[in-house]
Specification:
binds zinc ion, 3 helices
Length: about 180
Amino acid sequence: MLLDLNKIHAPRERYEKVYAPGAFSADDAFRVVDPVSLAFDILKDKRHFQLAGTVTTMLELPCSRCLEPFRTPVDGRFDLRYQPHTHAAGSGHEAERQIEEDDLSTAFYDNDEIDLGQLMREQLYLAVPMKPLCDSACRGLCPVCGTNLNRGACECRPGWEDPRFAALKALGTRDQEPRTKD
Ligand SMILES: [Zn+2]
Ligand SMILES: [Zn+2]
């Protein structure tokens, strides 16, 4: 998934490719379940490149409430600038640091190639919600018996308390009880 920059000659080129879901290793946070379409324009200015385009696919991820897998589409847009990494110390390094501070959208490339796999992975992570929910009305799992409450009710009484917590609470109150003076 490396883009060979030596093959980019025109000031503007189009790049389109579809990657199989299997090309993306499974992750704790999500699984890629549809082919990943990558399409972008490359603007070349000497050794500087701008990549602007889209990443689209479908992810499967676990609901944070009921833990059931659900699917969410990815429609990521990116506009990234790349410039060569300057390994030499001195003025070049200084200029590089300046850019890093000024422009967060500028990345650096090494060996005349850009890692498109990394670019796509970043877009996939950006598409994962902070709190993934299969449905905004997901009722989650019963904290006592683990029943998926979207599928049916359980017999647990609301307000049921784990006896271990009750015991801890009792210990806590005993400590706080005012001591009687003799
Ligand atoms: Zn859910
Ligand atoms: Zn229950």
